[in-house]
Write a structure and sequence with these properties.
single chain, about 240 residues, alpha/beta, five-stranded parallel beta sheet, 5 strands, globular
């Protein structure tokens, strides 16, 4: 008897720690993961190189990159010539929406994922947002995801036809340490991933931006050493 075909799901893949873990989770849940990465005008392209490595290593059914240039609008330290905050504590990060927030990025990326999902006949979309150890982004909250899911069911042919389009955010209530431990259980090699907002020319992480601080904190909580490359002098 032929084995049943795995159900397709679109997974937003940035090349970072969280999205790599989510890709592994989607596959472990029996989905055929179709990974989607975006060239959205980010200043550093090393994360896209990481996304390609992760998609291949974790067995994505397909990996596509799309271009949508949010740098035309600016407004973020990730897309414009604005300094990246450095050496902040997690408490400081939670106090305000930082300049590394890219206006409407997750709304745009989820919309692209929704479009591909319709073509694939998929009703499941995965992304790696987190509402605990994160930098205060408004589009990483459960309320946003619930609202987008309602919109997706109203605004698509599949949804109007009765499909239960579901936005999966399996990391949303996990600490960074819990995320890393889950990834280890699934065999994720975090040395492939890039989280840094201000990597060096060779892709080495700075160790001081918000993303690096949270990542290093997570590995410490997980009792592990981060295998990513860092600039000289960064303690892990």
């Amino acid at each position: 008897m032929t084995a049943p075909r795995a159900k397709p799901a679109v997974v937003l893949l940035s090349g970072g720690l969280d999205s790599a873990t989510v890709l592994a989770i989607a596959k472990a849940q029996g989905f055929a993961p179709y990974a989607l990465s975006a060239r959205y005008g980010q200043r550093h392209q090393v994360e896209l190189d990481a996304a390609r490595r992760v998609a291949q290593a974790l067995g994505a059914a397909e990996h596509r990159e799309v271009a949508i240039d949010l740098a035309q609008f600016g407004g973020s330290a990730l897309t414009a010539d604005i300094p990246v905050p450095m050496h902040r504590t997690p408490d400081q990060m939670a106090g305000e929406i930082p300049v590394t927030y890219v206006p409407a990025r997750n709304t745009v990326l989820l919309s692209l994922a929704l479009a591909w999902a319709e073509v694939l006949g998929a009703t499941d979309i995965f992304l790696g947002v987190n509402a605990i150890d994160y930098s205060g982004y408004p589009d990483c909250r459960p309320e946003f995801l619930a609202a987008f899911e309602r919109m997706a069911r109203l605004a698509t042919r599949a949804g109007v036809g009765g499909a239960e389009i579901t936005i999966h955010a399996p990391l949303i209530q996990l600490t960074k340490g819990e995320i890393i431990r889950r990834g280890f259980e699934l065999g994720v090699d975090y040395g492939m991933t890039v989280s840094c907002y201000q990597p060096g020319p060779g892709g080495e992480a700075c160790g001081a931006c918000d993303a690096c601080v949270l990542r290093l904190k997570g590995f410490a909580e997980a009792g592990a050493v981060d295998p990513a490359r860092y600039r000289a002098g960064v303690e892990r």
